[in-house]
Design a protein that fits this description.
It comes from Prolemur simus. This protein is of the alpha+beta class.
């Protein structure tokens, strides 16, 4: 059951709530721990447990499309223990799941359907629970240049960052696979070979193994992997390891190296030494940014959050060594050292953390540019508290940017969390959260299994000029168009009055790109325009036109793909492209003059292929004849046009064709005998042969 409340227009408000009433409450219970992941296709995966009559638990993975939350697909995972991790790949079409028994499964879409999933490969570290899981990096990293949002070229707004894959095949192609960390301090890597074979290797993070309660995985630009671990106690150090993966003699090899560690600042403060005994959350600020980490230490009632950064610092050298070796004095040795960037005051107990995925650099220069341009998406991370509230705080300064309260009575932001009255029973709070890929939406699943979707304002409560707000939304739409990500979360913030301007500006920016890029993005911009026009009653009539054009492009691509050059050393253009170019240049309606400029052998297809496409070719012929017959009527007011279910006009009054004998079989193919009869189409086909 989905509840869609009215928009409130604040910094964060509720978009909808999903409750699973089709399951009896006695058999449905949230899983412990609760895992949740949000893909770039705006598919959300999360876990629950179903209890049978004999008290057996079934571990279930649910796949939810954010645009149609009422249509939930559930997959029986067949995990024997609780699912601890879920992780989408970069394409959003495959999902990793790991459990407390060390089993990892790779789920993929069957026939590209979001409601059909199958698991064919996986790995196992028997009896060792998985605490962290990630796909290997494919080397694709994009940077957003907010200060260049007004540039004409997409290449200036979104640039490719030099980033090495975790592992490469012959020719530099990235190798697919995943890496996981277990509770006993093991790191396991599984590689997917092109043949379908899985290479798996397991190695200890260090010689002296210890318990790992929390872990996270990040990647460096040089192709290495960094793993952060903690044993759960704030009195123990947070350890960091560099992991290198390679393939030697058809076997996966793992090499590890210890990196500098850190102690949380709250444990070194005499006034707070024993106040926060446990580390409850450990996260790198970005998947491809291993130099910055977020830590949260908690007690039974409160928490504190700290942000740390790894920096290179000069190592002081004694004057004696400088006199002995002047070279040492000229070039000061450098070491890596963790430095605290910021820390919060005492907060209510943190129950969940969600980090942004928008690739905005966290250097001081880029943050200042984002602040000057008033571009706020991607600058904040989300913290959920046991009192039911959610705070968006700055990624580095940890200053509060937006607040959402689940209760009806709002609380002031500056009220100390420790003074708030507590209810007798457990408060409803989020146990798992995820931010969308543009940071404009937030999903949270509470301790009763209810899913809530929150909208995060792009302005974060600041007053923005209308044109500036439109430019920010347009910038994010262009980012989704270039990356291929779904843009549903952006549509949450588009008002009906913005639709016309956004569609026009989007088309204007698209036409500024080079022809090759326009061809690549042609279908994406049509789909984007259709989804935008659906939001306004003034433009909803265009939706059918855009979908129709997408449909015709799909048919055109299918037919063109069947044509192959007669010789391999032909020019770059395919037979279909050359036919299009010739038809554009030759305005003569005589088909014979067009055929003279074509190589007819390139248009010969196998008989079995022609039989398989008979119905499609029949539809295309009917459609073309209908268009030709409708041309004299274009002076009349335009009407709604639906090609898949064509309605033919009554043309029986028109004179029959002359010069081409039509057989009864030919006439039966066309509902009304017109001057554009099938014998003409047949002669064109004969000429092609």
């Amino acid at each position: 059951v989905c509840d869609f409340p009215d928009p409130l227009g604040g910094m964060m408000d509720l978009a909808y709530v999903c409750e699973w009433e089709k399951w009896p409450k006695s058999t449905h219970c949230p899983s412990v721990p609760l895992a949740c992941a949000w893909s770039c296709r705006n598919l959300i995966a999360f876990t629950t447990d179903l209890r049978s009559d004999d008290q057996d638990l079934t571990r279930v993975i649910h796949i939810l499309d954010t645009e149609h939350p009422w249509d939930l697909h559930s997959v029986a995972s067949e995990h024997s223990e609780a699912i601890t991790c879920l992780e989408w790949d970069q394409s959003g079409s495959r999902l990793l799941s790991a459990d407390a028994d060390g089993q990892i499964k790779c789920w993929s879409m069957a026939d590209h359907l979001a409601n059909s999933w199958e698991s064919s490969v996986g790995s196992l570290v028997e009896g060792d629970p998985i605490v962290a899981l990630s796909w290997l990096h494919n080397g694709v990293k994009l940077a957003l240049h907010v200060e260049k949002s007004g540039a004409s070229s997409f290449g200036e707004k979104f640039s490719r960052v030099k980033f090495s894959p975790s592992l490469t095949l012959f020719g530099g192609k990235p190798m697919e696979g995943w890496i996981a960390v277990t509770v006993s301090g093991l790191v396991t890597v599984s590689l997917l070979k092109p043949s379908g074979q899985v290479l798996t290797s397991t190695e200890s993070l260090c010689r002296l193994r210890g318990r790992v309660a929390l872990a996270d995985i990040a990647f460096t630009g040089g192709g290495n992997i960094v793993v952060a671990t903690a044993d759960g106690s704030s009195a123990s150090p947070v350890q960091f390891y560099k992991v290198c993966v390679s393939v030697v003699s058809e076997k996966c090899r793992i090499d590890t190296e210890i990196l500098p560690s850190l102690f949380m600042r709250c444990t070194t403060d005499p006034n707070r030494k024993d106040k926060f005994p446990a580390i409850t959350h450990l996260k790198f600020l970005a998947r491809d940014m291993s130099e910055q980490v977020l830590l949260c230490a908690s007690s039974q009632t409160s928490s504190i959050v700290e942000c740390w950064s790894l920096r290179k610092e000069g190592l002081p050298v004694n004057n004696i060594f400088q006199q002995i070796s002047p070279v040492v004095g000229d070039k000061q040795p450098m070491i890596l050292k963790w430095r605290i960037l910021s820390a919060t005051n005492d907060l209510d107990r943190v129950s969940a953390v969600a980090l942004p995925k928008l690739p905005i650099s966290l250097t001081n220069t880029d943050l200042k540019v984002a602040s000057d341009t008033q571009f706020y998406p991607g600058l904040g991370l989300a913290l959920a508290f046991h009192d039911g509230s959610v705070h968006i705080v700055h990624r580095l300064s940890l200053q509060t940017m937006a607040v959402f309260y689940s209760s009806a009575a709002p609380r002031p932001v500056d009220e100390p969390a420790i003074k708030r009255p507590r209810t007798a029973g457990p408060a409803v709070h989020f146990k798992a959260m995820q931010l969308s890929w543009t940071s404009l939406a937030l999903v949270g699943i509470d301790n009763y299994g209810k899913l809530s979707m929150l909208r995060i304002s792009p302005s974060m409560g600041h007053t923005l000029d209308v044109n500036l707000a439109l430019r920010h939304l347009l910038f994010l739409l262009e980012y989704c168009m270039v990356t291929g990500y779904d843009w549903w979360d952006i549509l949450l913030h588009v008002q009906p009055s913005m639709v016309q301007s956004l569609v026009e500006k989007l088309h204007e920016e698209y036409t500024r790109q080079n022809a090759a890029l326009q061809q690549v993005l042609s279908t994406r911009i049509l789909a984007m325009k259709a989804s935008l026009c659906r939001l306004s009653p003034c433009t909803v009539a265009r939706v059918c036109d855009y979908h129709t054009k997408l449909f015709l492009i799909a048919i055109s691509s299918t037919l063109k793909s069947l044509l192959r050059p007669h010789f391999l050393n032909t020019p770059d253009k395919s037979p279909g492209d050359r036919l299009t170019e010739i038809c554009a240049k030759i305005t003569d309606v005589d088909i014979d003059k067009v055929m003279i400029n074509l190589k007819t052998e390139e248009f010969v297809l196998d008989m079995n292929t022609l039989q398989a496409l008979q119905q499609l070719l029949q539809w295309v012929g009917d459609f073309v004849l209908y268009l030709l017959a409708s041309l004299p009527n274009q002076v009349r007011p335009a009407t709604s046009f639906h090609p898949p279910s064509l309605v033919f006009p009554d043309l029986s009054s028109q004179p029959p064709c002359t010069g081409h004998p039509c057989s009864p079989a030919d006439l039966s193919l066309w509902p009304h005998h017109t001057s554009h009869c099938w014998c003409r189409v047949r002669s064109m086909a004969q000429g092609s042969r």
